[in-house]
Amino acid sequence: MSKFYIQTTEALKQLRADKDGVVSFEYIIVAACIVAVVIAVFKTDTSISSALVGGITKISTAMSGL
């Protein structure tokens, strides 16, 4: 457990020191914002949500038949 903790803290230190790490952190923030918008759209619009659930159900049914 302590080995994992040490590896994680070292990776975070390296991410802070690395200039490219800032760019990847910005991508994470943008991705989180996109996910929040998508969740908000799916919660308010039931037609999109029901279409998505229907599609997943059809795929699951087709996959279980294999």
Walk me through what this model shows.
With 66 residues, this protein is mainly α. It contains three helices and no strands. It is elongated, with a radius of gyration of 20 Å. The relative contact order is 0.06. Keywords: Membrane, Transmembrane, Transmembrane helix. The chain crosses the membrane at residues 21-42.
Strand content: under 5%
Tell me the helix content: over 70%
User: Can you count the beta strands?
Assistant: 0
Query: What pattern of helices and strands is seen along the backbone?
Result: HHH
Protein name: Flp family type IVb pilin
Keywords: Membrane, Transmembrane, Transmembrane helix
Transmembrane segments: 21-42
What are the SSEs and their pairings?
Blueprint: H1 2-17, H2 19-44, H3 46-64
Helix pairs in contact: 1-2
Describe this protein with a few key phrases.
66 residues, mainly alpha, 0% strand
Structure at a glance:
The protein has 66 residues and is an all-alpha fold. The protein has helices at residues 2-17, 19-44, 46-64.
